[in-house]
C-alpha cells in the first residue's frame, strides 16, 4: 500500500510455547505470525482475558522484552540499548491505560501531570512554553486551562481519561498503545472518549494500537482487527470484513456474543467454554476443545496461517475449506 509507511513489524513473540513441541512447524508458523501497524491506522487486538493482549502492548512500548523475535519501529529494531535511544523512542510512543483512577498521581496538579512527559523526556525546557503547551493540550482534550490547577479527584472518570490522553500527547508521540482505555467507563462516556480519540488521530496523524476484550468497542475504531487466543493471533482482517465474514471459528464465537446493536435480527450467543490454562495449552490447535469444527488433525497439528478472502487466519478448517460461510447480514 503505497502511501502507508510501515512503522511496526512484530514477529514471533507469541508462538514460543510451540517451539518446544513442534520445532519445524514453529519455524514455518512464525514467518507468518508477524503483523504490522501502518502509519495513521488503528489496529485493534481483541481477545478474552488471558489471551496475551496486555503482554503484546507492553512489548510494543518497551515495558517488556519479547523472549524471541524482533519489534521494528520505522524499520529499526526497537532495542533500548542506550539512554539516548530510549529517550528518543519514549517520545515517539505513549500508552494510555485502562484505569484513569490508578494512572494519575493523586497528589499532583493536573497541569504537572500533563507536563511530566514533556519535561522528563526533554521535549521542552522553557517553563512559559511548557505552560502554554499544557493549556493547548487541555483544550485539545475538551478541558479548560483552569482545570490545570485542580487535582485528579475533582474530575469524573471520563474527564480523568481525558487528562491521561493529554498527558500521553504531551511528548508529541506518533504511536499510542491504548490498553482497554474505555473499559472502566460508563457506556455513554465510552462513546465520548472514543470519538475524542478518533478526532485526535485525524488532527495529529496518530497511529493507534487499540487493545480490547470487546469487539463492539473496536468496531468503529479500528481499520484492522487482530484476534488473539491463548497468546497467538488466530485471525487478522479488515475491520468491516471481519464483522461481515469472520473466518476463524473463534472469531465467530466472539462475534456471536456481541450485542446486536445494528438490529439485524441475529441471535446473540454466549461465548462457550473457558479459556484453557496457558501454561499447559491443548495440543494442536489450542482452540480445539471449544471448537465445533474440530477434528483429529486439529487435535494433532498446530494450524499455520492461510490467506483468506478477507485477511489471514490460522485454522485447518479454513485452509481445507470445510467451514461453512458465516456471512453476516
Ligand atoms: Fe477449529 Fe480446527 Fe480451526 Fe482449530 S484448526 S479453529 S479446532 S477447525
Ligand atoms: Mg489486560
TrEMBL record:
SUPFAM superfamilies on file: P-loop containing nucleoside triphosphate hydrolases (SSF52540)
Membrane topology: Peripheral membrane protein
PROSITE patterns membership: ABC_TRANSPORTER_1 (PS00211), ABC_TRANSPORTER_2 (PS50893)
Methyltransferase keyword on record: no
Gene3D superfamilies: P-loop containing nucleotide triphosphate hydrolases
Keyword Transport annotated: yes
Entry's localization field: Cell inner membrane
ABC transporter domain mapped to chain residues: 5-255
GO molecular function, one term: ATP binding
Pfam family, one: oligo_HPY
Domain of life: Bacteria
Keywords: ATP-binding, Nucleotide-binding, Transport
Matches recorded under InterPro entries: AAA+_ATPase, ABC_transp_ATP-bind, ABC_transporter-like_ATP-bd, ABC_transporter-like_CS, Oligopep_ABC_C, P-loop_NTPase
Family as reported in the entry's similarity comment: Belongs to the ABC transporter superfamily.
Protein known as: ATP-binding cassette domain-containing protein
Source species of the chain: Hoeflea alexandrii
